[in-house]
Amino acid sequence: MRRILFILVTFAVIFTGGFGFFAVHVSGMSTPANPDKADAIIVLTGGQSRLDAALDLLKAGKGERLLISGVHPSATRHQLQLATGSDKSLFNRVDIDRAALDTIGNAEESAKWVVSHDYERVILVTNNYHMPRSLLEMGRLLRNASLEPYPVVNSKLDEGRWLTKPEAFRVLFTEYNKYLLALARGIVPVKPTADGVLVVQAQAAD
Asked: Which residue range or ranges hold the DUF218 domain (predicted)?
């Protein structure tokens, strides 16, 4: 019983310490003021602020093309253009992925897009709390391309502010657990296919 109790306490300490490190790391992220130019830009859907940030980067010439990954199948290109207030000339440089349903799917579809265009350097746009898991999943498939994180920060949570905001704490704790599951998925083999890349027998959901 003592041994079991020791194992449980040790696990709890490691888990709690890991969460604290994760929360401090994520809450300390900031949006780059002027990132270096890349070959392309990828944005993962999940909020208007992400799309706006990615389109601003495209408009500023930080990438040749933009992939919006995880768009709802019913959303049309015209609807997206109107929703983001973008002009048609800018949206001609936008590709839309409607197949991805979660972060794993984002990584798979993005990898196909990057490989098909032979891009070497890509700016990845998503929220700060979602960035570690997104980089982890994409990094497994894009080993020949560098990913430059562009975290979108909706609210300042540094200096321990996430501890005083229940909703922010919940989001961080949920994302931390998803990140741990993504780490556990590291034992799943990845292999190339004729259509791009495939995660073998990947059943985990976002």
From this structure: 39-169
